[in-house]
Amino acid sequence: MAAQLDYPIPQRPSTTQLLTAFNSASVRWPGALRAGLAILIPGAIALLTGHDYAILLISTGAFTVIFGEGHPYRTRPRIMLTAGTALITVAAVGVLVGHLIFAPGHGHWWLLLAGLYSTALAAVCGFAQNGLRLPPPGTFFLVMVGGGSVMLARTDVTVGQLLFWALTGMVASLVLGMAPALMDLHGPERRAVASLEKAASAFQDGHDDSLARHHQAQTALFAAWQALSDAHIIRGGRVIDPQGAHLVERTLAAQHTIVAHNRALDLGADSDQLTDYVTDVDPNRTAIPHTRPTGRYRLYRAAVRDSHAMVTTQKVVLSAAITVLVGLSLGFDRPDWGVVSAFLMLQWGPNHVPGTVRGIHRMLGSVVGVLLFSVLHYFGINGWTLLLALAACQFCAEIFVAKNYAICVIFSTPLALLMGNSATRPLWPTIQARCGEIVLSILIATAVLWLWQRHAPVRNQARLQVRAMESTATLLGLLFVNTPDSVLSARRDLQYELLSERRAIQSLAADSPEAVRQFWARHIALQHAGYFLLDFCTTHPDRTATREELDALVREIRAARAA
Known about the structure:
Structural class: mainly alpha
């Protein structure tokens, strides 16, 4: 039945591990190539037809292809259309805001509107990506494109031109993103399982850096189960498409390997602390997971005062607002740049130490990225050279976005500067201002990370334990008169609550090890009882429970309640 869950309280990994860890072992060059071509192909058409100004506008829509990578073709078009529409919308609004800011007679402090718009975007995007638990890169490109588009208003770009060329970039992304389906309709889910097997083998056979290898295996496991769910191969903890059963069997075999080696090394959930994005995978489970609840349910569950998503949003808004005001007071002219820097550090609501390391990554990577931009600026790129630079930066950023943040930022920094039309402005003042805003935003974001809402995680943990118990009791009550297969939504919601509670207590253990002890015994009991109940449902999906079975379930849940 339920897996043994008496793993130890997670410990903080060393700062060296956090600084040097590669968080994913997956092969990313095919997706990175598509991301580069999504800029290169329509950009080349624009240049050949004499529309040189359109390159930056095309890039706005070309980011659409990034959001579809890794998703099965069954769900990819919907995801890409949603992301592309959002990108074009925030860019169009940004240009309108920019035309107001740079209207004749408007002075320096009108740039405050750019800061307010970027901060509002960061708030909405930060809450959404944490409430929905989106995978990397999350909503970063929405904030970057929305803020950078304000600066495009310094040129003669109109909203109509932006809409046309951004839509062109989006269409190119959709074609490139879906084209591989003509050759291999089930390629994404097969590649996800193959990547999982590779990561599981590396974790089992490796003799160094076991913590990082475990995290890579956990990340690959989450991606594989999500791909199989999106492809409608699994549902409710069971296989629903017999043609994909062999992929499920391979995923389960890899999961058994990971869990067994995890227990042998006694890593527990420690490896989840290597990154500020925690995978929704229990390191001790060896069963097919349920699908996620609907987006509406996840956002509703996040819309409470002390939730992870809400506290993250507060930190993003506070740090962005302070950065904008201080930056404008010092004479900086890109308030959106400071907001994007703060958002990049805080967007996943990281724990204190990983968040600080992320700030170091941002600072080091950005400084190197600004130097790279300086080289491009020195050679006076425009037209074809500008197009090649954008495509190359996009390719490299996509390669490293899920692997190592510092390296990714080296390439995303010149990409953001080029999209903000900085290549046409004086070089040295641009370097000084951008580096100054980076340092300012990281210092402010670090202070907010450590000082704001320090007791919210404790309150949130108590709330989540109550939620997990309530969901367990709800499912138990339904099983008195229903078969497990007729209450799939309650089973799905219970697993979501168990994962939420586990995720929160890991974060609490990393930041407040002295506070976590008051919750740990009940955490173990809740996880044991909840998965005991879910495992019963998986084992007996199409019949009602007997009186003896119900009595056993009740005893487990009462024991958890008394913990």
